[in-house]
Structures are given as C-alpha cells and as structure tokens.
Design a protein that fits this description.
single chain, nine-stranded mixed β-sheet, six-stranded parallel β-sheet, globular, binds 6-O-phosphono-beta-D-glucopyranose
Length: 508
C-alpha cells in the first residue's frame, strides 16, 4: 500500500540556491586532524559525486616541513581511512591530487602570507578564495589579521564584494567560537575588521546533516504538522544528543570546555532553533537566520536558583561502554585534571517565551559515555480531551508523539493509538520513515554539504554573529549558576546518565 510518488513529484530547489563555484581552498592547519578526517575526505567525495568544480584548488598551509608530494600522499592515506569506503583509484585520485599544493608557514609569519598571496595570484588559480581555519581557536584572530594584512581579506568591500561575480574572499571558522559571550563578541569584532560579515562562515556541522536540514523542509513543505506546532497542541519537546564514547584523547580541549560549551551552545541550541522558529519570509539565508535569532531572544534570562532547578550536570566515573570496552573515570582520562569539575553531561529545561510556544518546556540533554548513541528530537503532543478514551484510560493512553531521529538510523516515527484487533482495547502504533531507504546512492556527510555551500557562498547553514552571541548568553548564565555550586553528579560510564530519564522526571 502507498502513494505512487516515487520519481514523479520531486521539486528541484536548485534555482533557489546557489551553485558551488571554483575557488582556491586554503586549509590552515592542513596537516591536522580535522583536515585529514573531515575536510579533505569531504572534498574528495564532492569530486566523486561530480559536485566539486573542476577549477577548485586546495592549498594546505601548516608548519610541517614538507613538499607537495609528501602532503599529497599523506592526504591520500587520510582519504583511504576517512572517506567511508569511497572508491580511491588511480585516475580519480590523480585528478584530485593535481588540485593540491602545500605552503609551509607559521600562522603569524607575514612572509608566509606573502607567499600565499603570490600563489593565489599565479596563472591558473581561480579568482575566488576560501580560507578555512582548521586551527586552534586561539589562532583564529591571528590568521584573519594576517590575511587582511596581506591584502587577502574582504572587509570594507561590502556590497562591492557581493556584487562582484568573482574575486570573493571567504573565511570559514570552525568551533568553538569563543568560550563565552564576551569572547565571541570580541572575536566577531576582530574577524569583521578583516572580512565582511557576509563572507564569514561559522561552522556548526550539525546544520550540514541531512536530517537537520530536513527540519525546515518537513515543517514548512507540509500543511498537516504546522497547525499543530504550538502550545495548544504540543506538551513538551525533548532534544537529545547522547554519545556512547568517552572523551578519548580530547581531554586537553574538553576539560576547559565541558558539555555545555562543547555541545549545548551550538548543536543542541541549533536544533532547538530549527524546531521552534517561525516560518521565514523566504528561503533567503538572512530570512532564515533572522527567525533563528528571534527564537534565541525569546529565551528568558532565568535567575540563578531557577537555572539550578532547570539544569542538571554530571561527570562519568569508570564503567563499561556499550561497545564492551572499559572506560576510565573522566578524571583519569589523559590530559584531564584529576580533580576536574568539568561536566560531561548536561540537561537544561528552557522555555521559548513567544506567542507560539509560551509554557511549552524544551528539554535539552547531552552527554558522553552514555548507554546509547542517539541524536533525536521528540515532540510530545497533548492528550486528547478527557471524554471517551483519554478519560477512561488516563496515563495508559499514550499521547501522540513525533520522533525526528538525526542519527543513527535517520528518520522519523509518528506515534498514534489504534484499536487492538479482537478486543475492546486501545494501544500505540507508529508510522515510520527511514531516511536512507531509497536514498542509498547519495547521502552526503555534513562536511560535504557545508563545503559545497561555502563554495557557493550560501550562508544559510552557517552561524551568524548575533546567533553565536545569543547562544552564549544562555550558556554563560548556566555556567555562572553552576560556578561555586556543588560538583557535577557522578554517573557510571556506559549508563543512562544522572537519574532523570525521560519526560516524566521533569513532570512534563
Ligand atoms: C563536536 C563535539 O562538535 O561534535 C564533539 O566537539 C562531539 O565532542 C561531536 O563528539 C558530535 O558530532 P557527531 O556528528 O558525531 O554527532
């Protein structure tokens, strides 16, 4: 049973979005982990799918002393490991590696930027350049300023740079973007002195995930859900990103950040924005980002005591992960302080105080070394009126719910009640949608989409300066509420996290 839709009724939005254009992609930190694991494999896969324009050139910029040949061969090795089994044969790889060159330089050394400027001006190089900061956040400002000093920035070109068909200069910035609102504001100001805001692309890789992009499509390309998408029909919304691994070798970074800065400030808050935002006036990037900022501005500043009641933080102790591997206590992980009070788990109950959602709790939860690997948004609908089934069954009648699974097993499930055959009995059933089914051929990774959009100059899936600052406002208040308070609760690695499981614990 079903509807005859396959292959017949697609509507291509290409006309509404921009096409990737050839550019020189300069990867600062070109020999680092991010470049090897994500950026270069994503570019290679874009070539395989025919999306990477022929003219794209890739310049690695790093401190290691090596030549083009050595750099290319290290990237081949990286692509073999991190392209998810993508085909790497001689011809295809040959075509890819001819795009790649290497510049050895210190991030703060003007001479190296002079060399870069020359390389970019060489015959055969595309007019556009994309500077990707895959370096430690302390160096973001240094690189941006050095680029501007070498004449490679775009600040002040403003509408001129937008109007010019070529010669664009864009800056891609990885997270974390600051460590609080004040530092994010300082960083925004520094970057904007070097690049026009429209040329600064702040990455939150969750926005590149197909299932996350689908939130907008699902909400606004259908007419049956949006009339229900408000406090009249929604009881609560749960947004979870649960991870089954501990922090592994990332202690050096993570111990200074914690779950709230590492995950809540960006990925979970972005999911909240996309779930709660109003329909944008158009599909234009600014129209979409304006609506996301409005959601953030509708979240109140809670007094300290209230924030403490609304939040929970935890830190894992030693345990057995779901993979079967043992996991040391967080405090015993490499590069973590033995008396660390950094949280590896956080939950926070927020309300979006606007006309549509006032009074609806949004519960955000994320943590490491938990019993599951799962990113999901659950929209819990109100029970039907007490007459008939609801009055009779009370809590035994499951409310309707919509689960949007971001990963793994991308898809959706809609829970509703049906009659159980053979008896006067009612019980839950569900409609399921598996996102990969029928889309096995091409299901791009987040970084593929984000790089293609960066080449197109489409900033929809990147974070605007005001979004970053507003998201920090929420996390700053939480950090301030926790400061000086009790340490995080301990939970065993491989377990469900601090005992608050499910909506019931919040009285939702
Ligand atoms: C990163 C965080 O931004 O996202 C990591 O720094 C986290 O701590 C990762 O593990 C999760 O991303 P994904 O795509 O694996 O869900």
């Amino acid at each position: 049973m079903g509807f005859p839709i396959a292959g017949k009724s697609y509507c291509d939005l290409n006309g509404a979005s921009l096409e990737p254009r050839a550019a020189a992609i300069v990867v600062f930190g070109g020999t680092g982990d991010l470049s090897r694991r994500k950026i270069v494999p994503a570019l290679y896969k874009l070539q395989l799918s025919g999306i990477l324009p022929e003219g794209v050139r890739i310049i690695g910029f790093a401190r290691r002393d090596q030549g083009d040949a050595e750099f290319r061969s290290s990237l081949r090795d990286a692509c073999e490991k991190h392209s998810g089994g993508a085909r790497i044969d001689g011809d295809e790889w040959g075509r890819f590696e001819r795009r790649i060159t290497y510049i050895r330089g210190d991030l703060g050394d003007p001479a190296a930027y002079g060399e870069l400027a020359q390389a970019l001006a060489a015959p055969g190089m595309p007019d556009d350049a994309l500077f990707y900061l895959a370096v430690s956040p302390d160096s973001f400002e240094t690189v941006a300023r050095a680029l501007a000093a070498a004449g490679l920035g775009s600040a002040g070109r403003g509408s001129e740079s937008r109007a010019r068909p070529s010669g664009s200069r864009r800056l891609v910035v990885e997270k974390p973007f600051g460590r609080d609102r004040m530092s994010a504001r300082g960083l925004n100001a520094a970057l904007q002195e070097c690049f026009d805001e429209s040329d600064i692309l702040r990455i939150d890789h969750y926005l590149g995930k197909e299932t996350v992009q689908n939130l907008l499509y699902f909400r606004f390309a259908n007419s049956i859900f949006e009339p229900l998408w408000n406090s009249g029909h929604i009881q609560s919304v749960e947004i979870e990103v649960l991870e089954s691994e501990g922090i592994g070798t990332r202690g050096g970074y993570y111990d200074g950040a914690g779950a709230a800065r590492d995950m809540l400030q960006n990925h979970l808050i972005q999911l909240l924005c996309l779930t709660a935002m109003e329909p944008p006036a158009t599909l234009d990037p600014e129209a979409i980002r304006d609506e996301k900022v409005k959601v953030l501005r509708s979240i109140r500043d809670y007094p300290r005591e209230e924030l403490l009641r609304r939040s929970r933080r935890g830190q894992y102790s030693a345990g057995l992960l779901s993979s079967g591997d043992g996991c040391p206590a967080y405090r015993d992980e490499p590069k973590v302080s033995p008396d660390s009070t950094t949280e590896t788990y956080v939950s926070l109950r927020l309300e979006v105080d606007n006309w549509r959602f006032a009074g609806v709790p949004f519960v955000l939860r994320t943590g490491k070394a938990l019993d599951r690997q799962l990113s999901e948004i659950r929209v819990n609908f109100r029970r039907p009126p007490a007459a008939l089934f609801s009055g009779w069954c009370g809590d035994a009648l499951s409310p309707n719910a919509l689960a949007i699974r971001v990963q793994p097993d991308e898809g959706m499930a809609l829970r509703f009640n049906v009659k159980i055959p053979g008896a006067a009995r009612v019980g839950p059933s569900e409609l399921r949608f598996a996102y990969r089914e029928g889309n096995e051929d091409y299901f791009p990774e987040a970084y593929e989409r984000l790089l293609a959009d960066a080449l197109a100059g489409d900033s929809t899936l990147f974070i605007r300066s005001d979004e970053a600052e507003e998201a920090w406002r929420i996390v700053d208040a939480l950090e301030a509420a926790w400061a000086g308070g009790p340490p995080p609760e301990s939970y065993p690695a491989g377990g469900a996290g601090p005992a608050e499981e499910g909506a019931e614990a919040w009285g939702l």
